[in-house]
Task: inverse folding
């Protein structure tokens, strides 16, 4: 049974949706759940699971509290740390317990042990990679150097393990790699993982796949950007295509592409752009987001195509022109520090678009 | 017919809240200090005590609905701003674009809630090792400001200096953050902080003072002026931290 420090409820809540005055205390997590039930917080109940009921308890406080709880693997700790003072605030307006006076509990003294314990989990090869990577995520907060090398090693070795692959992708999304050789290893390993996840054709993997694509874009050499073209194909999900287009914009967020390669990527982006930037096709929401991202990506790879882009925009709805204009202004602002004159060129071109736009 | 207004959701109040209306939560001390804001994701007839579907920076960035795992709690205050169809289309494009950054439940659980979150500035670029722009972190109010800005609607005068806040105001307006910070000052490697990925308020933009974040209450003072489609009021300049109350 999970331990919970005493939580006292001594008065009616200020929101007015709780039961009248009561006086209770709990010493275990299970008792807490029972108490929540007895207080008939049923308006907040969902599925009756312990987890859901506990969410109810914190939900009384504010949304962050709830998500802190949902995010944590050690819910008893979160409850202990967050509820004593918050519950007093929420339920007992006469509470005279200031925040600072509430002890952060004995867990503090055990923190070094906790880091050591997590490191032991990471280093133990008999543990599952899922468990080890989850531990690594926590250690990364205080000792990123310890985690970096291990993560790259595991990412390179991880094959055909969907769950581990997802965890490792989320982990490298949290870490930063200052060494260039590490970054080269990183994007190539991530590319292998992304191709593997995509081959599963499983919508539940789209989030990890999207994270991998974005992380690849954050470190890949510009000249290698062509490898993203496979995520823009028709058999990639719509969400994946949007993220791949956003990824192209990430790669060229500091300066537009100045070379003449990347033919396949450029052609595919232009194909998408031409298909979607059409008055008969363009609708708000998803289609507009992809069309706008395609225009930005196309401008990143080939600034010379901007005249054609602006010409196409003549035929579409004014509100979409405004969306595109804002996206391109943002792009130009990002390029201002680059040595090229691309930012000014783009701004100059957008002046014409401004004249075409219907005033709001 | 939908009215453009800002209302406290009391027991006798019913309100037609349209998509992209802004919902707020009060602190629990009866002071009417607004501590959270989010965007209503589905038009609804709002009644006291009824949960609503929200797209918001909890943190993390999430959509909460009756269908999702955890129903969102009732809200305390709602602003319905009149929007033209063009403005709505622009906000829909924004909504879909930003949705690409909503993490799966398992990713949120693993990473902790704070990686997408910032208090000050209200919107902060996230850069890679190569200084490439990967995305943005938002405060809860920052997400709403950015949504309206995507439609060309300036709610808060973001280039203007905001009023300075102190620890007391921080504790009232960000109670959970203040609590975690008090733990962080005593023990940065505390178990709960490692669990949640909390690295202290400096990481959230509250480093050396003065602290001048955009407080949620400012937003409702701004939106309460948007009663007509035209003319639109200018971006709101908060007078003092007292504007955290509404």
Result:
């Amino acid at each position: 049974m999970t331990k919970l420090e005493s939580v006292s409820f001594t008065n009616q809540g200020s929101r007015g949706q709780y039961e009248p005055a009561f006086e209770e205390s709990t010493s275990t997590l299970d008792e807490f759940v029972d108490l929540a039930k007895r207080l008939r917080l049923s308006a907040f109940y969902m599925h009756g699971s312990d987890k859901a009921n506990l969410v109810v308890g914190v939900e009384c406080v504010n949304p962050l509290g709830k998500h802190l709880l949902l995010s944590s693997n050690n819910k008893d700790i979160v409850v202990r740390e967050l509820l004593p003072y918050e519950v007093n605030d929420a339920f007992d307006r006469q509470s005279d317990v200031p925040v600072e006076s509430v002890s952060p509990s004995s867990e503090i003294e055990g923190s070094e042990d906790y880091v050591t314990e997590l490191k032991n989990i990471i280093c133990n090869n008999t543990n599952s990679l899922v468990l080890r990577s989850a531990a690594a995520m926590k250690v990364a907060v205080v000792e990123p150097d310890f985690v970096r090398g291990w993560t790259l090693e595991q990412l390179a070795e991880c094959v055909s393990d969907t769950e581990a692959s997802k965890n490792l992708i989320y982990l490298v999304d949290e870490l930063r790699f200052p060494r260039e050789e590490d970054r080269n290893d990183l994007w190539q390993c991530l590319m292998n993982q992304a191709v593997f996840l995509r081959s599963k054709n499983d919508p539940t993997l789209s989030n990890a796949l999207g994270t991998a694509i974005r992380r690849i874009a954050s470190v890949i050499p510009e000249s290698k950007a062509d490898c993203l073209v496979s995520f823009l194909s028709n058999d990639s999900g719509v969400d994946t295509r949007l993220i791949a287009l956003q990824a192209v914009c990430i790669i060229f967020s500091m300066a537009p592409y100045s070379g003449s390669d990347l033919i396949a990527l450029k052609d595919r982006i232009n194909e998408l752009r031409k298909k979607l930037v059409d008055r008969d096709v363009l609708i708000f929401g998803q289609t507009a987001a992809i069309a706008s991202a395609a225009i930005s990506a196309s401008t990143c790879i080939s600034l010379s195509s901007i005249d054609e882009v602006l010409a196409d925009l003549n035929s579409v709805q004014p509100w979409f022109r405004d969306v595109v204009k804002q996206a391109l202004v943002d792009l130009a602002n990002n390029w201002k520090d680059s040595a090229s004159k691309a930012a000014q060129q783009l701004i100059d071109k957008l002046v014409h678009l401004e004249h075409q736009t219907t005033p709001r | 017919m939908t009215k453009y207004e800002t209302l406290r959701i009391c027991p006798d109040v019913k309100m037609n809240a349209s998509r992209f209306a802004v919902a707020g939560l009060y602190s629990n001390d009866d002071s009417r200090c607004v501590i959270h804001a989010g965007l209503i994701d589905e038009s609804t007839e709002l009644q006291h005590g009824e949960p609503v579907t929200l797209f918001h920076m909890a943190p993390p960035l999430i959509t909460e609905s009756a269908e999702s795992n955890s129903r969102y709690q009732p809200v305390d205050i709602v602003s319905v701003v009149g929007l033209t169809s063009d403005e709505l289309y622009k906000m829909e494009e924004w909504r879909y674009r930003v949705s690409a950054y909503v993490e799966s439940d398992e990713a949120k659980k693993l990473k902790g809630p704070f990686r997408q979150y910032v208090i000050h500035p209200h919107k902060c670029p996230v850069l890679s090792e190569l200084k490439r722009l990967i995305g943005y972190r938002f405060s809860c109010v920052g997400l709403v400001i950015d949504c309206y800005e995507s439609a060309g609607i300036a709610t808060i005068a973001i280039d203007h200096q905001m009023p300075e806040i102190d620890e007391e105001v921080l504790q009232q307006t960000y109670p959970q953050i203040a609590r975690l910070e008090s733990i962080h000052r005593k023990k940065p490697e505390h178990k709960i902080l490692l669990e949640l990925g909390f690295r202290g308020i400096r990481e959230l933009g509250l480093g050396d003072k003065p602290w001048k974040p955009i407080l949620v209450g400012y937003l409702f003072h701004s939106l309460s002026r948007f009663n007509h489609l035209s003319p639109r009021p200018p971006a709101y300049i908060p007078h003092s931290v007292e504007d955290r109350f509404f």
In short: Chain A touches chain B through 94 residues (CB under 8 Å). Residues 196 and 223 of chain A are 23 Å apart (CA to CA).
